[in-house]
Amino acid sequence: MAKAFFRLQKFLRRTQFLLFFLTAAYLMAGSLLLLQRTRLVIQQGSRGTPANQALPVLEEMSRAGIIDPRALQSPRLPEGTDALQEPGLEQRHSPHWLTSRNSELRRLRRRWFQRLPSDQEPLQTAMQHTPEHQGTYMGCFTHDSRERTLKGAVFYDLRKMTVAHCQEACAERAYSYAGLAFGAECYCGNSLPAAAAKPEECNSECKGEKGSVCGGVNRLSVYGVEQLRAAARPRRNVIYRGCFRAPENLTDTFPASLIQPNLTVEMCSEFCSKKEFPLAVIRGQECHCGFPTGRFPLRDSTDRLRCHGANYCLVYQTPVQDTRCTDRKFLTTKSKVFVALSSFPGAGNTWARHLIEHATGYYTGSYYFDGALYNKGFKGEKDHWRSRRTICVKTHESGKTEIEMFDSAILLIRNPYKSLMAEFNRKYAGHLGYATDRNWKSKEWPDFVNGYASWWASHVLEWLKYGKRLLIVHYEDLKQSLIPKLKEMVEFLNVTVTEDRLLCVENNRDGNFKRSGAKQKNFEPFTQEMKDLINRYILTVDEALRGRNFSGLPREYVPR
């Protein structure tokens, strides 16, 4: 009996050990499976960088302050690659070294561009409702984007649009009506649409407010905002455009006119705003409203002190948006020529896209996806960059493989000093903000300059080397001579546009991503060592451009 009991006890001990072993093995297997799935998610989220899976995690740790962000400036090379050898000073700024360095850092740069915190809007777990809107609902109306009834300002917010937001935006610009369509588009105007639609056809939920209706597909939910205009804070004052020679026949040139004794700027601007014209033109007691046209292109202004008599007139910009060039669409057929809009970051690529879209009427695409740009109306952001449904594709890439995928390219170049500062501002404060003095005086800034200055140079050098057909555009020239340079770009894209449309683009030249003036700093951000480094890169790029029979860099680039 004792022997049988001993055997049973021995068996139970072995069983207990076996159960413990199986439980531990099960837990280890589950942990390994979880780690494998996590790694797969990271791989799927690392677009364009499958060889460096740890980089996204490192970036998040950097943002949280766990590791020094400067560690990201020197990416880990793949296994089997020799360590980087630091070249001598005489070799460090040669075209060969710059392109070699650019190739080694390309994966880091791609991750840097796509995962900047300033470009990513935080996801909200719950949609917050805006306060109850106060406008008067006028009904559901048909909406034709090509022949709009609400011809005033246009706004897009494909993530946060609400009824109240649209009403306030239109009221601030002194419009009488606000209309919403597609759940995310806001239109302003002073005349009700003529064609009413069935109420149930306005059925698109507002992107930023659950339970609220923001029009529908080709349908407008229209609200009267007259009662909001008095309380609304004016978005901007009337802008003085200058004194210009009056056209020969003002009545033929301008669609609306008013003769008023004791005429004031405010009276003329209000009259033209109600008529939905962006220009208010004053000559004596005459007020004329219209657009910039070939007859009146707003060029060659004169001194205001000389602006008297019947030959001159004062021109003001009203709060009304010039909408002759705001309609955009995707290409109806796939483009046969695959065109890049290439630039170093901070060189004005977004501004150039704004100009191209409004001049041609077609969306531009992007090698990346920027939610902030998509939410502001750059609908090509979500289109696959190789779809060929966009007029050109934004890219900051400069590797041989990436360049040779394009048939031609507009290469946008900007002063590296300005580009570096613009990109640093974007990194820390988004498209419209400014980095703080603390950011500029931190260790991040010199590390940023040391890395990005060479990228500025190598980006141009590699496109000159591998690009098949290039149009070189200098940001400064585009800014100073908008219409001539924009004509060159449009012709390069093989699109024909009217003079009036180009004048409309000039009238809307800033777009939604212009920083409000240059924020003055009470210190010089560039040390002499930085200037010496950047100036050597400038001379290298200037020599390379001239070697390819392009005009060299603008004189203001060199040296500082």
Distance between termini? 101 Å
Q: What is the CATH class of one domain?
A: Alpha Beta
Secondary-structure arrangement, i.e. CATH architecture of one domain? 3-Layer(aba) Sandwich
- Strand tally is 17
Summed up, the helix count is 18
Form type: globular
Portion in beta strands? 5-15%
Q: CATH superfamily assignment of one domain?
A: P-loop containing nucleotide triphosphate hydrolases
The whole-number mean of residue pLDDT values reads 79
Structural class: alpha+beta
Give a quick account of the main beta sheet: strands, pairing sense, barrel closure: 5 strands, antiparallel
Strand order of the largest sheet: 1-7-3-4-2
Low-confidence stretches: 35-87, 111-131
Radius of gyration: 30 Å
What is the CATH topology classification name of one domain?
Rossmann fold
Portion of residues within helices = 25-40%
